[in-house]
Amino acid sequence: MPPSHGSESSPVLSQRAYEQVRAMVLDGVLPRDKRISETKLGKELGYSRTPVREAIQRLAREGLLVQRPSSGTYVVQPKLREIKDIYEVRLAVETMAASKAAKKRSEKCTKQLQACVVRMNRAIHRFRKSQKPVMQGKELAQYHAADEKFHQLILEAADNPFAQSIIMQGHVKQFIFGHQSHHRNLHHLAWLWLKHAQLARAIDRQDAADARRCMNRLIKASMRDAISQAKSKKA
User: Fold this and answer.
1) Domains in the chain: ranges and CATH
2) What is the spatial distance between Cα 204 and Cα 102, in angstroms, rounded to a whole number?
3) CA spacing 20 to 30 A to 219: which of 48, 69, 104, 177?
4) Cα angle at 227 between 221 and 136, to 5 degrees?
5) Are the beta carbons of 226 and 174 closer than 8 angstroms?
6) What is the chain's mean pLDDT, rounded?
7) What pLDDT does residue 7 have?
8) Hey, what long-range contacts does 148-152 have (CB within 8 A, 24 or more apart)?
9) Burial state string for 132-141 with b = 16 or more CB within 10 A and e = fewer than 16
10) DSSP category for residue 36
């Protein structure tokens, strides 16, 4: 039975509903091809309709959900052109951010980046023990959370709020697509982990050129995967 939230204030309820619905979107709990019912979602989470509606409206403004007139609310599905556009912007901005992060290197940032690399590695180890062909469920959510935090830390270290705003909006959409469409097998995950680890080391060494190269390789590889998956979906 879902928890009751009746004694909490409206702003608290709205924030909690937002966080829970957002997590459901990012974790793939809400499928992309089915209409989201405010009433059903409220019952599942134990909220009245108002906090859920406010959460949905907020997520729609952020680009995670799309509200279609006379149809309803759905999880956003980036189109092939949009996927290409997102990655092209990421390639330009995040390679710059990696270079700046290396030049500005701080002990706090390097420790946080290494912690993300460790969390990604733990998720991969749990996945390997599961003997499943592709990562999914809890391990996938944990891996992606560490991956998203890793890139966010680099953007923050570059100290360019405008770049952060641009990239995080597109990164979330790309994250949804990648989370639900990429098939992460052990070989692919091991390669991705190694590239993240190399990037973290380049920043720690203050090697701006190598940090830029590492980020370039990571984003181009993800771009190829995303485009390949998008084309296979259309075929």
Assistant:
1) 10-75 (1.10.10.10), 80-234 (1.20.120.530)
2) 7
3) 104
4) 75
5) yes
6) 86
7) 45
8) 148/175, 149/112, 149/116, 150/113, 150/116, 150/117, 150/120, 150/196, 150/200, 151/94
9) eeebeeebbb
10) B
Q: Which of 33-37, 91-95, 128-132, 207-211 has the lowest mean pLDDT?
A: 33-37
- Rounded to an integer, what is the distance from CA 87 to the centroid of its chain? 13
Question: At CB < 8 A and 24+ separation, what contacts does 127-134 make?
Answer: 127/186, 127/189, 128/186, 133/185, 134/183, 134/184, 134/185
Question: Among candidates 143, 147, 162, 179, which has minimal Cα distance to 97?
Answer: 162
Beta bridge partners of 74: 66
pTM above 0.90, yes or no: no
Q: Residue 3: what pLDDT?
A: 58
Those residues with Cβ within 8 angstroms of residue 24's Cβ, 6 or more apart along the chain or in another chain: 30
For residue 133, the one-letter residue type is P
